[in-house]
């Protein structure tokens, strides 16, 4: 995609007129029009301003710079790089601090980067092949051999995940996110919207050996990250929606602690490759 086409596509996707974008970027509608028609070649600083005005993710900002003929300005560092050791330590601290409740970190494709010990509560009965690295958290949640048989409100929860992934896939048309979205959508049952529909903001109702768990989730991102890898990480934390769920998770954590007494810490960490190095679909479990 050349720069005029790339700029026009991103502007229209965000439902902005040329004047809207011009005001945001501190330029004129005429200049935006000239750039979109190819009559004017923007400078590097103008491309950065346009990307910021469009609130593009860092990966897309680099792509817009490349389309304009400039080198990317945002680095993409492997999580295993020593430079990101403080970030890994911070993630471990957050995951441990969320115990006895489950919490995970995933990359842009939903591949598991890290998880705390309570993650195993979500994985009861999940087929081993779905838990073989690289683990895709979205696939584990919706695959028929994953969590799906235990989810009491599967239609609503599947709709929640599919819709969230659909929004992300709009930034990756024809790419792996689009393929994953199509796969997950095939697992989700039709969910007719009635007059009392309140959206998919509903607790996850999950059957367990100790009783039904009712969980709500929060998603945290690195809002001020200037590295592509960090900007695409999502930390999803599960919280009990009632006292019964809190009691079950606390009791299970106590049992895990008793079983693990005297053994070294064995944090579950599945390091996913970056988006460009993720394994092709035919090599991933469950496809």
TrEMBL record:
<feature type="compositionally biased region" description="Basic and acidic residues">
    <location>
        <begin position="256"/>
        <end position="272"/>
    </location>
</feature>
<dbReference type="InterPro" id="IPR010982">
    <property type="entry name" value="Lambda_DNA-bd_dom_sf"/>
</dbReference>
<dbReference type="Pfam" id="PF01381">
    <property type="entry name" value="HTH_3"/>
</dbReference>
<feature type="domain" description="HTH cro/C1-type">
    <location>
        <begin position="7"/>
        <end position="61"/>
    </location>
</feature>
<protein>
    <submittedName>
        <fullName>Helix-turn-helix domain-containing protein</fullName>
    </submittedName>
</protein>
<dbReference type="Pfam" id="PF17765">
    <property type="entry name" value="MLTR_LBD"/>
</dbReference>
<dbReference type="InterPro" id="IPR001387">
    <property type="entry name" value="Cro/C1-type_HTH"/>
</dbReference>
<feature type="region of interest" description="Disordered">
    <location>
        <begin position="250"/>
        <end position="287"/>
    </location>
</feature>
<dbReference type="InterPro" id="IPR041413">
    <property type="entry name" value="MLTR_LBD"/>
</dbReference>
């Amino acid at each position: 995609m050349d720069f005029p086409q790339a700029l026009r596509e991103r502007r229209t996707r965000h439902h902005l007129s040329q004047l809207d974008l011009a005001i945001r970027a501190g330029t004129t509608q005429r200049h935006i029009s000239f750039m979109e028609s190819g009559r004017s070649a923007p400078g590097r600083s103008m491309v950065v301003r346009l990307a910021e005005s469009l609130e593009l993710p860092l990966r897309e900002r680099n792509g817009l710079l490349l389309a304009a003929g400039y080198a990317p300005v945002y680095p993409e560092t492997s999580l295993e790089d020593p430079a990101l050791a403080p970030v890994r330590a911070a993630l471990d601290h957050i995951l441990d601090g969320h115990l006895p409740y489950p919490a995970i970190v995933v990359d842009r494709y939903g591949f598991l980067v890290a998880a705390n010990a309570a993650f195993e509560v979500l994985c009861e009965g999940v087929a081993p092949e779905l838990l073989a690295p690289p683990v895709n958290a979205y696939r584990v949640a919706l695959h028929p051999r994953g969590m799906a048989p235990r989810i009491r409100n599967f239609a609503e929860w599947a709709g929640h995940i599919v819709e969230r992934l659909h929004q992300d896939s709009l930034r990756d048309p024809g790419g792996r996110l689009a393929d994953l979205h199509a796969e997950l959508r095939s697992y989700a049952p039709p969910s007719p919207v009635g007059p009392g529909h309140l959206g998919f903001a509903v607790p996850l109702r999950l059957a367990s050996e100790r009783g039904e768990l009712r969980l709500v989730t929060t998603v945290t991102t690195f809002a001020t990250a200037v590295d592509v890898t960090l900007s695409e990480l999502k930390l999803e934390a599960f919280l009990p929606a009632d006292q019964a769920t809190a009691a079950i998770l606390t009791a299970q954590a106590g049992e895990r602690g008793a079983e693990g007494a005297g053994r070294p810490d064995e944090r579950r960490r599945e390091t996913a490759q970056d988006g460009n190095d993720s394994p092709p679909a035919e090599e991933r479990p469950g496809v």
